[in-house]
Amino acid sequence: MRTFISLPAAVAASLLIAVSGQVAPAEAEEAAAEGDMKPLVLVAGATGKTGTLVVQQLQAKGYPVRAFVRNSAKAVERLGADVEAVVGDLKDPASIAAALDGVGAVINTASASGGPENSAEHVDFEGARNLAEAALAAGVGQYVLVSSRGVTDDDHYLNRMFNNILIWKRRGEEAVAASGIPYTIVRPGGLSDDPGGKQTVIFEQGDTQSEGIWITRADVARVCVSALAHEAALNKVFEIHAEDGEAQADFAAEFSSLSAS
Fold this sequence. Notes:
The protein is of the alpha/beta class. The chain has 10 helices and 11 strands. It has helices at residues 9-14, 25-32, 49-60, 72-79, 93-99, 120-137, 157-161, 165-179, 217-227, 252-257, and strands at residues 2-3, 40-44, 65-69, 84-87, 103-108, 142-146, 183-188, 190-192, 200-204, 214-216, 236-243.
């Protein structure tokens, strides 16, 4: 089932309520005017904390957005009535294929939510793989995956606490990279709900540190959306966290400095 609840990009942007990490309303309206030039973006996990901010960032930047959700009522509650919502499940490849019609890019923020049906194995691994394979078949140009720091450490304490969640996330990364779709894999540190755009976002590679470093969900959303606009972000895997300092207006230089996978 699909629920279509969309408005023209310029109208949607003008109705945005200012939220942490978003661009100013005037900039949102200007970006929305260019919305027809930007790809339709499917956001998986769109009603989660990070996914909601990704949707808001995309709207603010003038991207047409489609939310891939399991509950249409929750989508309206979390995202508002100006977002097109398509009901489906990452465990159901047929529902993914239906949601990808006309999509040019995907951002996957989905993660395990508990219970055997939505475990890390099913969502962070199999769901990430299913979306990558369907997106490749549909001709999608970029897949942005939100993963986590620490995925290369099999002995990480989060694996002991949450049924090997980081191991499954790493397998999800590997499946996306192996699918053949152009990808960007973002590994944030610990996530906070503080306002974004207040610190410098640090980009690293090698997954050398995973504890005691943080980043706001809003800044993770900013990085994910920015990756869509920069070819230098393609086929790269990197960690991010935030430190005190001036917030970047754009991440072009950081993407360019990264090594390809």
